[in-house]
Write a structure and sequence with these properties.
Length: about 240
């Protein structure tokens, strides 16, 4: 009887853990929706009442950046949760690459404007590739938001085909990636940095998502480097 009680207790503990995981995921979903509404309201407010001076521009910029960053992290958490629970399918279809990039630029137009950020896009407008538009667009969006924080004034997005793989690079004119990220770009075992406040969630999400794209015996990957075309960091995303 004692053995049965122990098993029953263990089962209850497991059920409680699963329930909490589900509740947490549901809460994250609700928070994501609320932040999406906040971002839309903020964009409308900026259009109706544009900043009149540099101080107001900084306020808009800070609000836009922080809301976008948190929203991105919530989306990534939900995706990673679904990947871990094997309830996630990559929806691969053919897309015009420049359209996906321009969609993400439009999402962050106010952020770029309030930060006086110049974004250059180098991409063949006829280039098409097979990938999950929402997932890859999410990676690009997250990288752009982070680049705004760490760049001085310029971001460059370049797309080309290398060795039969789509190569999308995002470079900035900032200080570059920390050595710890260059040493372990996949960040499978990376932790939280209390010095910078970074959870490394964005790169973990990018690594997991690109690896889900597989074709012809190859899978997607990401690569980090410094001293890019603008002198700062550069992230390269490869898709088969």
């Amino acid at each position: 009887m004692r053995h049965d009680k122990d098993n029953s207790s263990a089962d209850r503990d497991q059920d409680d853990t699963l329930d909490f995981s589900f509740v947490l995921a549901s809460s994250v979903h609700d928070m994501k929706n609320s932040l999406g509404m906040l971002l839309n309201s903020l964009e409308s407010m900026a259009q109706d009442a544009p900043p009149q001076n540099e101080a107001q521009k900084r306020y808009y910029s800070t609000l836009s950046y922080e809301a976008s960053r948190i929203n991105n992290e919530l989306v990534q958490l939900l995706a990673l949760y679904r990947i871990q629970h094997e309830a996630f399918m990559v929806q691969v279809d053919e897309h015009v690459v420049i359209d996906v990039i321009e969609d993400q630029l439009a999402r962050n137009e106010m952020l770029f404007e309030t930060r006086n950020m110049q974004v250059e896009v180098l991409c063949d407008e006829t280039l098409r590739w097979y990938f999950d538009c929402d997932l890859i667009g999410g990676i690009v969006n997250n990288i752009l938001v982070n680049c705004v924080r760490y760049s001085h004034a310029r971001i460059q997005i370049a797309v080309q085909v290398e060795d039969d793989m789509l190569c999308l690079t995002i470079a900035d004119d900032g200080r570059g990636y920390p050595q710890a990220m260059l040493d372990a770009p996949q960040l499978e075992n990376a932790g939280v940095s209390f010095d910078t406040g970074s959870t490394n969630l964005g790169l973990l999400f990018a690594h997991r998502v690109t690896a889900l794209h597989r074709a012809r015996g190859r899978k997607g990957c990401i690569h980090l480097a410094n001293n890019g075309p603008l002198g700062g960091g550069v992230l390269s995303l490869y898709l088969p």
